[in-house]
Amino acid sequence: MPEERSITAAELALLDPDGAFSSRLAADRDVLTALARGLSTAPAESRQRRLAEIEGVAHRLGGAAGTFGYLAVSDAAFELEARIAVRRGGAEGPFAEIQDRLAALVSTLDEALR
Amino acid sequence: MTSSGAAGEQAGVAVSGEGTQSLTASQARILVVEDDRDIAGLVGRELRALGHTVDIIGLAEDALVAARAADYALMIVDLGLPDRDGLDLVREMRRRSIEAPILMLTGRGKVEDRVSGLASGADDYLVKPFAVPELRARVAALLRRPSRIKRSRLTVANIVVDRNSLEAVIDGSSLPLALKQFQLLELLVRRKNHMTPKRMIEEALYGFNDEVSGNAIEAHIYKLRQALRAAGAEVRIETRRGIGYRLVECAPRPAPDA
């Protein structure tokens, strides 16, 4: 499905004629950056709460970004969501992996917004 | 809810069913239940470009009200809604005999969501992210399906009249009615908001050779009113002396004090 598609600039413009989704990408990027700040040193309860928020943003972004043609953003968001879900499910994966995925998503958003 | 706005603009769910019956398959009335403004806006834009009338709602409870008020040809329901799980919403719609086809939107990679969606009463699913041409194709396929089952059922407020099974259902519970009262209810429901002359009722309920006593129709109306009131039907039958009867929707009665 989405990974098999390639989206042209013209198609992107048709999907998002008023640029509203592009603005949302920028807003989501800022939210993710704020939530990531100090995440590794935050108390456990605060960290869990912030991870849940990040997971929610990633889930919504994964579904919406791919639909609007931002396929790399969608993939990065879903990878982050999946990594957080695994940890939430009880598996103690390295926390650094989540941070890496989060950084990768922010970087992909930067690339898309450029 | 609005026909031109986006998800989240839900002040008042005033759905007009006017003109629904005259819409063709290529001009269907479609309900989109999606809280993501961007996705809802995109879906609405695409469907309107195809000539459809689109109502967008962001909350499950508002969607339930709208689905009962209007005769949608198709509903597109997101699985993750803020006030209620999308699966619950689909189950509730089916329980209330809302028969419009449902296309469920689900998250990527969650097979169990897709299976649960179909098991709950959805007719098809579309995985997010989706390609717009696939959305169009699935919508077209669902709208092409025969609507025989839907036409066999008439819905007004919380009442469903099934002409195949000769059964009336109120809030999911069967309403025991004699045949003549069922036929009377069906006629009034079909002519909802319109005055139905007494002579028309007599012709619908009795054959040419039947003896009809002077107050037979009044007696059927009386019994039907009693049955509807006892079952909590959100309709009333108005009388216009010398002319006939009219069935109209009314607000639900408040529950009695405990």
Characteristic terms for this protein:
heterodimer, A: 114 residues, 75% helix, elongated, B: Rossmann fold, Arc Repressor Mutant, subunit A, five-stranded parallel sheet, four-stranded antiparallel sheet, 9 helices, disordered N terminus
Account of the protein in words:
The complex is a heterodimer of chains A (114) and B (258). Chain A is an all-alpha fold and 114 residues long. Chain A has one domain (19-113): Four Helix Bundle (Hemerythrin (Met), subunit A), CATH 1.20.120. In chain A, 75% of the residues lie in helices and 0% in strands. Chain A is built from five helices and no strands. Chain A has helices at 9-15, 20-36, 44-67, 71-88, 95-113. Chain A is elongated and about 45 Å long. Chain A starts with 8 loop residues before the first helix and ends with a helix. In chain A, 34% of the residues are buried. Chain B has 258 residues and is an alpha/beta fold. Chain B has two domains: 20-149, Rossmann fold (3-Layer(aba) Sandwich), CATH 3.40.50; 153-249, Arc Repressor Mutant, subunit A (Orthogonal Bundle), CATH 1.10.10.10. Chain B is 37% helix and 21% strand. Chain B contains nine helices and twelve strands. Chain B has a five-stranded parallel β-sheet, with helices on both faces. In chain B, α2 (60-69) packs parallel to α3. The radius of gyration of chain B is 20 Å and the shape is elongated. The model of chain B is unreliable at 1-24 (pLDDT under 50). Chain A binds chain B through residues 1-2, 5, 15, 20-21, 24, 59-60, 62-68, 71, 74, 78, 82, and chain B through 36-39, 41-42, 80, 105, 107-109, 127-132, 134.
